[in-house]
Amino acid sequence: MLALQERYKRNYRTISLEQQQILAQSTITVIGCGGLGGFIIEGLARSGVGKVRLVDFDTFDVSNLNRQLFSTEAAVGASKLEQAVARVRVVNSTVQIDAVEIRADLDNLPELVKGSSVVIDAVDSIEVKIWLEQVCNKMNIPLIYGAIGGNCGQMAVSLPGMPVVSMLYQSGQKHGIEKELGNPYYTPCIIGGMMVKLAFDVLFDADYETGGFYFIDLDSYMINFISTKGDESQ
Amino acid sequence: MLEVRLFATFREGREKIIMMEYQPGMTGYDIITPLGIPEEEVAIFLINGRHSKLHAELEDGSVLALFPPVGGG
Fold first, then answer.
1. How far is Cα B64 from Cα A97, in angstroms, rounded to an integer?
2. Is B68 at the interface with chain A, CB within 8 A?
3. Contacts of A49 (CB under 8 A, 6+ apart)
4. Domain residue limits, chain A
5. Torsions phi, psi of A4, nearest 5?
6. Which of A63, A173, A210, A225 to mutate to test the interface with B (most CBs of B within 10 A)?
7. Measured between CA atoms, how close is A223 to chain B, in angstroms?
8. Residues B42, B32: contact at Cβ < 8 Å?
9. How much of chain B, in percent, has pLDDT values that exceed 90?
10. Interface test with B, best of A177, A178, A221, A223 (most B CBs within 10 A)
11. Residue A144: left if φ>0, alpha if ψ -120 to 50, beta else—which one?
12. Angle at CA of residue A156, ends A223 and A7, nearest 5°
């Protein structure tokens, strides 16, 4: 307890000791260790989450260097998952790590998210985002959804009976504006950090909005919560 | 009048907020067509802050919002 108090003492005026213990007892699964995933995993490790389950199948490419936290020049071609695990180990050796090198799909997702206190979506595929919500809603696990593109990002808490992700992509788009605009450094950094806060708010049973999504526009430095509780008969 | 708020890439080459003359029977399609926004590029359409379909009929004075899809990770 003393070590815990010392290590996290700069948290306590915002994350209480009681909440710190909730984090230490939590298992958070992050699907994707790239742009959003890198900043999210870093935040979970530094904050003292008890156990993280990390999932990715990909390797670092030179074009990841502009933003993906765990990519380095030396790690181009290396496994994103292995780099994420190595980073968590050096940042916080008390964090238990469960690492699964696999491409998430509808078949393996139930096993991947099982036992999680919260699941965080950091994948770059709209198809997988939709599957992830279906599986988490069905298994009664809160999902923190997030997506980025250019100077924009969006995030949401998806709970059973209140799906958000399926509504956001109901027009059937395969890709978003990120395909054309890419992602600069600050977009995954800011949205990833906010997703960590949102995940903690769910764990702490704090105040957060549901039944819609937060839209973050970095061009105008605006955050809006947009309700998706529309009239489906329209 | 209708107030149309555009987000993200929809603002490229357009104003962020566009005022349009209301005509009875108008739907979301009567908004996106003159703006040159293809239907398949619209991920979210809001009428007065509520999630809606493009074929929903509009009322005078409504505030509309259009968002493209964002899907990166």
1. 46
2. yes
3. A23, A24, A26, A27, A28, A95
4. 17-227
5. -65, -45
6. A173
7. 12
8. yes
9. 88
10. A177
11. beta
12. 85
Among A1-10, A95-104, B3-12, B46-55, the range scoring the smallest mean pLDDT is A1-10
Chain A residue closest in CA terms to B40: A171
Q: Do B51 and A228 touch (CB under 8 A)?
A: yes
CATH number for domain B2-67, candidates 3.30.70.60, 3.10.20.30, 3.50.50.60, 3.40.50.720: 3.10.20.30
Q: Check whether A233 has a pLDDT greater than 90.
A: no
Q: What stretches of A92-222 show up as alpha helix (H) in DSSP?
A: 109-113, 126-138, 165-168, 178-181, 186-203
Chain B contact present for A133, CB below 8 A: no
Q: What is the pLDDT of residues A34-86, one digit of tens each?
A: 999 999 999 999 999 999 999 999 999 999 999 999 999 999 999 999 999 99
Classify domain A17-227 at the CATH class level: alpha beta
CA–CA separation, A152 and A216 (whole Å):
6
Which residues, in sequence order, are bridge partners of residue A27?
A51
Q: Are A156 and A214 in contact (CB under 8 A)?
A: yes
Q: For residue range B44-71, what is the model confidence (pLDDT) as tens digits?
A: 999 998 889 999 999 999 999 999 999 9
B25 touches chain A (CB under 8 A): no
3-class DSSP state for residue A204? coil
A105-146 confidence digits (pLDDT tens): 999 999 999 999 999 999 999 999 999 999 999 999 999 999
